[in-house]
Specification:
Blueprint: E1 2-8, H1 28-43, E2 50-53, H2 57-70, E3 76-78, H3 88-99, E4 105-109, H4 113-122, E5 137-142, E6 148-154, H5 156-163
Parallel strand pairs: 1-4, 2-3, 2-4
Antiparallel strand pairs: 1-5, 5-6
Helix pairs in contact: 1-2, 1-5, 3-4
Length: 165
């Protein structure tokens, strides 16, 4: 089975407050909630073989915090097809290639790209529209057909509760 977990980055600094938006970091709240998300994944016994992140600072910080909490910092890799505005088909090809060596995989990305990617996989005609909140976790099972089944959508407030001591 190709188990894919998708997560949107945590809360980041104010849009427009950085000359280059790619450099916008997580806020303190974003860091705290990313840590709780990592603890929640640990509690749920979700241990990805690889953790992919977009090249943007806020996603990399989110993925790094989660990876450290899971003891998987060596499995963290940047994937350009997770960057804002990337083609969902490119992301799917990259993930399928990564699954050739096994799974599960966690990918940390952005909106609206994650929502469009998920929608393209779970709806035959692409008409489904999904929005992913900051810090939310989505579990998909990728099928051989290139489609996916939605296994779970865990909102950030639930991850906060699961990750709390």
């Amino acid at each position: 089975m190709r188990e894919l977990y998708l997560m949107r980055h945590g809360q980041a600094g104010v849009r427009g407050s950085y000359e280059d938006d790619r450099l916008r970091p997580l806020t303190e709240e974003g860091r705290k909630r990313s840590l709780l998300a990592g603890r929640a994944l640990k509690r749920l016994e979700i241990k990805p073989r690889l953790i992919f992140t977009s090249p943007l600072v806020r996603t990399h910080q989110t993925a790094e915090i989660v990876a450290n909490e899971l003891g998987l910092s060596q499995q963290l890799k940047t994937l350009d097809s997770l960057a804002i505005g990337s083609d969902p088909g490119d992301l799917l090809r990259d993930l399928i290639e990564a699954f050739e060596e096994g799974g599960p995989i966690l990918a940390v990305g952005h909106e609206p790209d994650l929502g469009l990617f998920i929608s393209s996989l779970i709806s035959a005609d692409g008409s489904a529209r999904m929005r992913v909140k900051k810090g939310a976790l989505i579990h998909l099972r990728l099928l051989q057909s290139g489609e996916a089944t939605l296994r779970a959508l865990i909102p950030p407030r639930i991850l906060d509760q699961l990750g709390a001591d």
